[in-house]
Amino acid sequence: MENKEKDRWDKADIILKPVGGFLTALAVAALGFFGSNYLKAREAAERSSRERMQATEMRVRLYSELMSKREEAESALRKDMFKSIIESFLKPGSASLEEKVLNLELLAYNFHESLNLKPLFIHLRKHITFAKNYKKATKQEYIERLNKVAREVTRKQLLVLEGAGEKFDRTIDLESLRKTPGGIPLKEATLTLDNIERSFKVFVLEADPKMKEIKVRLEIRTPKESEEVDIENAEFWVGFFDFPMIDNTRLSHDQRCAIVLNEFEESGTHITVIYFPGSYASLKEKPYYEEVRQQLLLGERETK
Question: What kind and span of H or E run contains 105?
């Protein structure tokens, strides 16, 4: 009985050994085939990915070169334009009022973010006012052109600053101001920027209808972590030639505040108080070293 059982196992062993070898060979062949296909597909995918990356890098490099050349061309053009316009103001000569107003318009529209153009506006307005051989209506037309370009520049700057900061508008009754020699206070407003809350109060002290300017006192209150309050005061004249990116009040934490004169009519005026980050001030405005250090320390605390 035991011999018969052994014979069956021997026969099974004889039959299964070739089958096992065949299956092993088949498995090895299949593994090699699929492994080879997988490696080829992976290599093709990596090659395709490298080609796409190279193509993308080439496009980015080409775009960067084109933008760099474009910026160089624009910078050269702006440099030549600036030099030509400034020379027209500085060199002695008998340029007409039309030429001077046109040059200031070009200067204001192209360089208002980096230059304080208020002195030029005031100088040209004075020059127009006292110019001889010009009719009163003609001189008034030139002054209106100056006011128009100034308001347009202010509008452009406000659009940029409003996107990054906070603002509020106020209307000033000039009749009430004339009846109140000490000036009139405007409604206080509280604005928050970058988690810093400040209260703004404007006192209107005087108005100059001829020059279309108002004299104001700006009071800014900033609560501290303790119960103390920082109070900052500034007193100044505001006219159409005061541009917010240039003519502003520096605050702590590299922030700015500016008052903009939008309209000046016989019955009243309209102003905007804009509160914005110092990074949006003009190119000539640089943060103090201490402000930069505080910003870096604040950034380190937030990342911890």
Answer: helix 97-111
Q: How many domains does the chain have?
A: 1
* 101/8 Cα distance (integer angstroms): 116
- Measured distance CA(175)–CA(267) in Å, rounded: 7
Does residue 20 lie in a domain region? no
Q: What angle do helix axes 97-111 and 136-164 make, rounded to 10 degrees?
A: 0
Does the residue 45 lie in any domain?
Answer: no
Altogether, the residues listed in the chain come to a count of 304
Question: pTM (2 decimals)?
Answer: 0.67
Is 50 exceeded by the pLDDT of residue 289?
A: no
* 8 Å CB contact between 221 and 252: no
Here the tokens at position 57 are: 């890098």
- The residue range of the domain holding 261 is 167-303
Q: What is the C-alpha separation between 176 and 184, in angstroms, rounded?
A: 8
Structure tokens at 206: 């005087």
Are 200 and 185 a contacting pair, CB within 8 Å?
A: no
Distance (Å, whole) CA 151 – CA 166: 20
184-185 and 166-173: which strand pairing?
A: unpaired
In a domain, 99, yes or no: no
Q: Which residues pair with 171 in a beta bridge?
A: 270
Q: Which two tokens stand for residue 134?
A: 């010009």
The model's pLDDT over 247-279, given as tens digits with 9 standing for 90+, comes to: 899 998 889 999 999 999 888 999 999 999 988
Q: Which residue has the tokens 């080439």?
A: 58
